[in-house]
Amino acid sequence: MIAETRHQMILDILHKQRSASVQELAEQLHISESTIRRDLIVLDRQGKLTKVYGGAVAMNMESSYDSYEPDMDTKEGLYVEEKKRMGQYAASLIRADDFVYIDAGTSTIHLVNAIDGDAKKAVYVTNGLLHTRILARKGCIVYVPAGRVKPRTEAIVGAAVLNSLRRYNFTKAFMGANGISIERGFMTPTIEEAELKAAAIQSSLESWFLADESKFNKICAAGICDLGQANIITNRLPDVRYAEKTLVKEID
Predict the structure, then answer these.
(1) Contact yes or no for 197/188 (Cβ under 8 A)
(2) Which pLDDT does position 53 carry in this prediction?
(3) Phi and psi at residue 205, in whole multiples of 5°?
(4) Does residue 153 contact residue 128 with C-beta atoms inside 8 Å?
(5) pLDDT tens, residue by residue, 12-52
(6) Where does residue 125 fall: left (phi above 0), alpha (psi -120 to 50 degrees), or beta otherwise?
(7) Phi-psi region of 154 (alpha: psi -120 to 50; beta: other; left: phi over 0)
(8) Nearest by Cα to 208 from 121, 119, 132, 94
(9) Which of 5, 13, 227, 243 is deepest in the core (most CB within 10 A)?
(10) What is the pLDDT of residues 63-80, one digit of tens each?
(11) 3-class SS string, the chain
């Protein structure tokens, strides 16, 4: 397969699903991962995609619409180092007397991994299966709401979770989002998860979204809340207008 053909196939995949890991692209194109890595470097230099640790994301377009939700394996390979730094900063905000909600997702996994010291004395609620295991192994007090497990994101969802979240009074909530827009606020592809995220934010005194740069200027099907209802932790802010609407902490 000639390079031009490979490049176009890679761009077609990213146009459809917005992000992909090196392994995923290699499997779909039936070529080696080393060839994919070289192709991504070329395409990144040409400004046709954004190369990230472990894969690539489509170039940001002003308010592009995105209905695709990558699975956990794909998302775990994207913006890894950036998510680690965001998670470390988020963990530094947690105090021993906090009652914390942690949303399911790969960005918040790095927050959970970074929890240490006095933050381990806080009380946690999470709808993430992996988050629950990590917190329990650290010796933290962690509560898991009843509900249905969503295989693609490994999140616990459903009416029972929604009812539980509405009864809590969190001091802090750490959230994930698939899209952020100045006009539409924070968004996610499914109505069910949007309702859960909104309920957690409404039940919290202070809310933070952990969002890498690829999440900005992206529209998803279901709105969570307006920009002014939560703060943002990101590796890089692509548009200063977001900082005019809410508090933004850039890690890089």
Answers:
(1) yes
(2) 77
(3) -70, -30
(4) no
(5) 888 777 788 999 999 999 999 999 999 999 988 887 888 88
(6) beta
(7) left
(8) 94
(9) 227
(10) 555 555 666 666 666 788
(11) CCHHHHHHHHHHHHHHHCEEEHHHHHHHHCCCHHHHHHHHHHHHHCCCEEEECCEEEECCCCCEECCCCCCHHHHHCCCHHHHHHHHHHHHHCCCCCCEEEECCCHHHHHHHHHCCHHHHHCEEEECEHHHHHHHHHCCCEEECCCCEEECCCCEEECHHHHHHHHHCCECEEEECCCEEECCCEEEECCHHHHHHHHHHHHCECCEEEECCHHHECEECCEEEECHHHCEEEECCCCCHHHHHCCCEEECC
Listed in sequence order, the residues at least 6 apart from 162 whose beta carbon sits closer than 8 Å to its beta carbon are 195, 196, 199
Tokens of 11: 């761009």
**What is the C-alpha to C-alpha distance for residues 68 and 61, in angstroms, rounded to an integer?**
15
Dihedral through CA 142, CA 145, CA 146, CA 147, nearest 10?
-120
Both tokens of 198, joined, read: 């909104």
> What is d(CA 251, CA 104) in angstroms, rounded to the nearest whole number?
21
Mean pLDDT of the chain: 90
Per the listing, tokens 């009652």 go with: 99
Question: pTM score, two decimals?
Answer: 0.74
Specify whether the CB–CB gap between 113 and 134 falls below 8 A. Answer: yes
